[in-house]
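Each lists chain and fold; for instance:
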Amino acid sequence: MFLPVDTGEPDRFTWSVHCREGCMKTRSILFALLAVVGLMLSACGKSESPAISTSSSPPGDAEPLTIGVAFETLQTESWVAAWDKLKSESQRQNIKLLEAVADGDANRQLEQVKSFVNRKVDGIIIAPKDAKTVIPMIKAGKAANIPVVLYNRPSDPTDAKHTVIAPDNFSITKETVDYLIAEARKTGKKQKAIVLIGDLGDINALGRRDGFEAAVKAAPDAIEVVARIPTDWNQEKALAGVQSAFQANPDIGVIFTSSDFMFPSIRSVLSNQGKWRKVNEPGHVILGGFDGDATAYQLMKEGYVDATGVQDLLWEAEQAIKVIVDAKKGIAAPARIDDRGFAITQANLKELAPRMWGAVVANKKKP
């Protein structure tokens, strides 16, 4: 029961004042409660919004792109250098990367790509195991209207739209082997040669093999190929193959490896036979490779390797991301982007080393 206060005024006035004060307090409390409820609802609404990227963007900026990167392996320096470049380039452009490595398992890589599709990424970059098993991955991306870029390894023919960025293996290898042949001619006698061939399921290996064959076919006066060693990109197979070749032909004078990562196997065999010698030293075995990795760069600096074919992996990584960024802008992607590469030799090493990805990697390793 409300009790009037004795103010010397009529009870009716006192009641009215108290009523107005009470109503005003009630309204103030209601407004405060409504404000609190509004803030709570606003906070709930924000927490329910899906976060696509962990990277932060200034207010009002567009949502960062998300790209899935699926590599068959990180077994060699070349793949690691490419992987690192993709990460640094994506960070530079505020792009989120979803990363997956299949460790040589094509079925696993397919599942990884399907996972990217389910997560609705903006693009997919694949370094596939081989030319055949990647086709279902391309089709999975196409079915979801997601741009797919094949990094460094093309696929077999398919009507599924995609972009491949890969080296011109044939031309780079032929240019490199032509240099080895020129060095062989300087010896004044026909040289026996061996070639280490990569995985024949890898189209890059086929291009390098064919580039080698084209070069030596044009030089029957200078080169006799006495062994073609299948390695499946395996160091142990490379070592065993080179050992067998030297047992059958101790006077081998030229070796070409389809990947620089097999130089340690070659060095092991030559060292054991006392033939690991520098350019221009008596008994030097003319050596050439392909990739342009840090090992090859160091061996060239030291004077042991004559030449290697360089694929511009860092440029390829930049182009792979550019294709996806352009696609989101509505710019049509080409079916293929060629990496022209180059042969780096003892004659042009100082000039071209800054363009060699292996030199970049080697210089980063310096303390």
